[in-house]
């Protein structure tokens, strides 16, 4: 007998006679396992189970992908907002360090001209401070543009930062770094400056510092003020305004913000711009002219402000003129151009301020309508008065006045009444001929006489009550009086 009794009628095949385990007792298999092995599955059911398993797996993968996608969108939005805040903070710091460098440069220039020389340690310390602030400014500008590139990658879904580095962006970054890198170098460096005086045309030679050439371009750092205004503007930070601007294909830049400010408060913008340009140009003229102005006319700050003001307003009295090409072409020419532009803007702003608003126009039109209505009423009253006087003094009767009433300068007898038709006297009956009047009586006109005079209607208020015709009233009275008698 076999050692496996309860095997369900399935015998285990014998091994190869040459096998190593020949003659050894084989372990018994489980009855349950034997039943599963001996059972034959249907192929259609197996395929259905596989499809169901695959469908469930795909559905779970899709749900997991959507969950990851939502998490990625939320992460991108949060990351984008953080980049916006960092960029705005970097722009603020860059403006602070840029203005700090300008203030220190002006202080060092004024002190080195009147208090100490360029060789002193104070001048060296101030120039080192300017250089340090310039290095910090350059680092902030590089970090600012790095945040801009990251924002570009987040907005456009780019994986490589080199996609955002277009030739235009590279040129603008290099130009910005070059402008902000200009500053006075520590130490004293001189050059020979030759100029021709304005009135005497004599040559003037002076040994000037190189700091003049390196100090004046530092005012170009003021462009950072426009960037800060853009990043702090509500139009730029508000999501709804940016969405509407994107739908209308509007680029939110410094030009758009300046246009908005000119629309909201044009007077304030022009005033701040004019005063700032006036002060900067006056100080620049003073620095350029102090090496060749021996009489201290334009090298004085008040004299330089007077020169800039008459140049800005295009007056040009001729009492003060610059001697150097720096003062002539670099400052006064640009001042004249800016003055012409600001004058045109001031005229436009004043003209806009003098215009009536919509509510004021409605009030003005209402007042004009009221005055015109009063004039029409007065004219109608005058016409009625004249008609009544004409009717009163031309009415036939026993008590008729022999003295004719003069209407103006025209006597009443010679005045032909256009409003009174020919009619039969009241005391004469129809169809009879009295002895006093040998003429045949005239029949009253069946058709009333139309007034040829037309009163002009009010073009603004056409609803005016018409004036009754006096000829109709007289005809009606003529027809009614014989019946009463």
TrEMBL record:
Regions of biased composition (Basic and acidic residues) lie at 55-69
| Coiled coil segments of this chain | none
- Name the chain's protein: Calmodulin-binding domain-containing protein
Mark out the compositionally biased spans (Polar residues).
Answer: 18-28
Database matches in SMART domains: CaMBD
Asked if the keyword Transmembrane belongs to this entry, the reply reads yes
Q: Pfam family example for this protein?
A: SK_channel
Record flagged with keyword Transmembrane: yes
User: Which Gene Ontology terms of cellular component type are present?
Assistant: membrane
Any one GO molecular-function label of the UniProt entry: small conductance calcium-activated potassium channel activity
The highest taxon in the source lineage is Eukaryota
UniProt lists compositionally biased (Low complexity) regions at: 45-54
Disordered: annotated segments: 1-71, 410-485
Lineage, uppermost ranks = Eukaryota, Metazoa, Chordata, Craniata, Vertebrata
Calmodulin-binding domain residues: 369-424
| Keyword annotations from UniProtKB, A to Z | Calmodulin-binding, Membrane, Transmembrane, Transmembrane helix
């Amino acid at each position: 007998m076999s050692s496996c009794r309860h095997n369900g009628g399935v015998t285990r095949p014998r091994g190869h006679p040459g096998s190593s385990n020949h003659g050894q007792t084989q372990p018994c298999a489980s009855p349950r396992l034997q039943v599963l092995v001996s059972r034959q599955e249907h192929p259609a059911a197996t395929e259905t189970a596989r499809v169901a398993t695959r469908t469930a797996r795909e559905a779970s993968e899709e749900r997991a992908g959507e969950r990851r996608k939502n998490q990625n969108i939320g992460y991108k939005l949060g990351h984008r907002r953080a980049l916006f805040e960092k960029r705005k903070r970097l722009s603020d710091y860059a403006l602070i360090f840029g203005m700090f460098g300008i203030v220190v440069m002006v202080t060092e220039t004024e002190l080195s001209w009147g208090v100490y020389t360029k060789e002193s340690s104070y001048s060296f310390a101030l120039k080192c401070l300017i250089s340090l602030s310039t290095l910090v400014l350059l680092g902030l500008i590089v970090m600012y543009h790095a945040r801009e590139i990251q924002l570009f990658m987040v907005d456009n879904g780019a994986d490589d930062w080199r996609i955002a580095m277009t030739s235009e962006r590279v040129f603008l970054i290099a130009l910005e770094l070059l402008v902000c890198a200009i500053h006075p170098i520590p130490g004293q460096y001189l050059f020979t400056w030759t100029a021709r005086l304005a009135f005497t045309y004599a040559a003037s030679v002076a040994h000037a510092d190189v700091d003049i050439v390196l100090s004046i371009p530092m005012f170009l750092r003021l462009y950072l003020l426009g960037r800060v205004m853009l990043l702090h503007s509500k139009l730029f930070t508000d999501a709804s305004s940016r969405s509407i601007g994107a739908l209308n294909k509007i680029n939110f830049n410094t030009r758009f913000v300046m246009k908005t400010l000119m629309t909201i408060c044009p007077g304030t913008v022009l005033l701040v711009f004019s005063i700032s340009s006036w002060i900067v140009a006056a100080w620049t003229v003073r620095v350029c002219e102090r090496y060749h102005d021996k009489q201290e006319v334009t090298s004085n700050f008040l004299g330089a402000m007077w020169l800039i003001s008459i140049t800005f307003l295009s007056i040009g009295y001729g009492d003060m003129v610059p001697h150097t090409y720096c003062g002539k072409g670099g400052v006064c020419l640009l001042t004249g151009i800016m003055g012409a532009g600001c004058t045109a803007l001031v005229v436009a702003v004043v003209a806009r301020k003098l215009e009536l608003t919509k509510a004021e126009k409605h009030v003005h039109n209402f007042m004009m309508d009221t005055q015109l209505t009063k004039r029409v009423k007065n004219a109608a009253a005058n016409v009625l008065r004249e008609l009544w006087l004409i009717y009163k003094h031309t009415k036939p009767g026993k008590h008729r006045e022999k003295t004719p009433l003069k209407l103006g300068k025209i006597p009443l007898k010679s005045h032909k009444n256009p409003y009174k038709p020919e009619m039969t006297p009241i005391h004469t009956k129809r169809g009879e001929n009295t002895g006093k009047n040998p003429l045949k009586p005239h029949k009253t006109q069946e058709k009333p006489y139309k007034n040829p005079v037309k009163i002009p209607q009010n073009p603004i208020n056409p609803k005016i009550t018409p004036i009754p015709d006096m000829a109709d009233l007289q005809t009606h009275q003529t027809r009614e009086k014989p019946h009463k008698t």
